[in-house]
Every structure is written in structure tokens, then in C-alpha cells.
């Protein structure tokens, strides 16, 4: 198993990852997982959906999640997002609550964030796969070097990018970004029910992102 990233536009930035020691074991672990009797999420064709929908030349903002939702029908390759028709997970409900408070607008009724991705919001999980009903079950596969490389690649792009780092784990990725004179890094608490009241609510990430993009000559994101 290997990723074909050539048609995503990421190949130039990530092709060197195939030669690194972690890559072959990661691909082997994924091959074994998808061949097993235990369901793996997201479905295999959607594993790199975030990269497909948001090619490098369109990246304006990066939102980092942890690992995919692990219940049937939820994960479709975009952090925090669920397909239309699915109930909103708690973290996404809180994201929408902050969105409404920040922008003074009603959030969308559904949880599919594809419209964000198509506008340049890279919705990247730091682990891209998971076994059904087992949160964090693929974190030992070796995803971190690969997704760290994606974050570093996004930080190397010629355009200025907003990085929304929600929670302690995402906040640690700031070291991969650097260039705060060129990019905007917004760190806050995670939107989960356990931490949203500790600094996520009131952080105004959506308006601050758009203010930065506008100041740098970019079209703002239509969040609602």
C-alpha cells in the first residue's frame, strides 16, 4: 500500500517521505488493518481526502484534529467533519457554538465541512485512521512523521497561512510551523466538552483568521 498524491499537488512536497524509515512500516500496518475483519475508518478511498480537497496552492488555513471518529458512518477523511445526515459530535457542536458567537450568524445545520476544505481549509487529523469503536487505536502505526511532514509542507508554502491549533496536542505542532512573521498561529483549548470552557469559547478563531487573510490580500473563508 502507498499513497498516490500526484494528483493532489502534494507529491512535490511529500515525495521524500517514501524513503524515510517510518513509511514502509506505516503502509504495512495500514494494509494489514484494512484487510482485517475489524472495520477501519475512514473508508480506504477517503484516507487522504483532506489532501485531495485542499491542494497546496489553495491552502489558506489548517485546522488540526487528532484521530478520526471511530463510530460507523462518521469519519470521511476531514478533521471534525461528519457526512450530512449524521448527528453532530460534541466537539463539532462546540465549534459551531463558537462560530455563531464569533460571527453572529447561524451555523449550518449539518456537519459536513467539505465546503470549508474546498475553500482552502486543510482539515487534517494527526492520525489518519482508526479501528471501529477504538479511539486512538492507530496512533502507534507511525502516522505522526507523515502528518508532521504535511504540517511542515503547509508552513513552507509561499502564501501566508493561518494555523488553528486547538488543544495541547495540536499546540505542540507550532514548533513545526515557525515563521510567525509570515503565518498566523492561533492556539486555544480544544473544543471538546471537557475543555471548551477553558479558552476555546471566546477565542474568535474564525473572524481572526479572516481578518488575517484579508490583510494579506486573500479572499476570506465563508464559514457559514
Major β-sheet strand ordering:
3-2-5-6
The backbone outline, from C-alpha atoms, is globular
Order of helices and strands: HHEHEHHEEHEHHEH
How large is the count of helical segments? Answer: 9
Strand % is 5-15%
Give the biggest sheet: 4 strands, parallel
How much is the radius of gyration in Å?
A: 17 Å
Distance between the termini: 37 Å
Structural class estimated from helices and strands: alpha/beta
Average predicted confidence as pLDDT = 95
Helix content: 25-40%
- Strand runs, count: 6
Would you identify the regions where 5 or more consecutive residues have pLDDT less than 50? none
Please name the defining characteristics of this protein.
two-stranded antiparallel ribbon, 9 helices, alpha/beta, 6 strands, four-stranded parallel beta sheet, 224 residues
Summarize the structure.
This protein has 224 residues and is α/β, with parallel strands linked by helices. Helices cover 33% and strands 11% of the residues. It has helices at residues 11-14, 23-35, 49-53, 90-103, 114-118, 143-155, 168-171, 174-177, 205-215, and strands at residues 40-41, 61-65, 121-125, 130-131, 162-166, 184-188.
Amino acid at each position: 500500500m502507498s499513497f498516490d498524491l500526484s494528483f493532489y499537488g502534494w507529491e512535490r512536497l511529500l515525495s521524500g517521505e517514501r524513503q524515510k524509515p517510518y513509511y514502509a512500516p506505516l503502509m504495512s500496518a495500514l494494509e494489514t488493518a484494512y484487510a482485517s475483519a475489524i472495520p477501519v475508518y475512514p473508508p480506504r478511498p477517503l484516507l487522504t481526502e483532506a489532501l485531495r480537497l485542499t491542494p497546496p496552492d489553495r491552502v489558506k488555513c489548517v485546522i488540526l484534529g487528532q484521530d478520526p471518529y471511530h463510530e460507523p458512518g462518521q469519519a470521511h477523511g476531514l478533521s471534525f467533519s461528519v457526512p450530512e445526515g449524521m448527528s453532530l459530535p460534541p466537539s463539532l457542536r462546540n465549534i459551531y457554538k463558537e462560530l455563531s458567537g464569533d460571527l453572529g450568524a447561524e451555523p449550518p445545520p449539518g456537519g459536513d465541512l467539505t465546503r470549508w476544505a474546498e475553500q482552502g481549509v486543510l482539515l487534517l487529523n494527526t492520525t489518519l485512521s482508526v479501528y471501529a469503536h477504538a479511539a486512538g487505536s492507530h496512533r502507534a502505526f507511525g502516522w505522526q512523521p507523515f502528518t508532521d511532514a504535511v504540517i511542515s509542507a503547509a508552513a513552507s508554502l509561499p502564501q501566508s497561512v493561518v494555523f488553528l491549533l486547538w488543544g495541547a496536542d495540536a499546540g505542540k505542532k507550532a514548533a513545526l510551523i515557525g515563521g510567525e512573521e509570515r503565518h498566523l498561529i492561533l492556539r486555544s483549548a480544544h473544543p471538546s466538552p471537557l475543555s471548551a470552557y477553558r479558552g476555546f469559547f471566546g477565542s474568535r478563531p474564525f473572524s481572526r483568521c479572516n481578518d488575517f487573510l484579508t490583510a494579506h490580500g486573500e479572499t476570506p473563508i465563508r464559514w457559514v
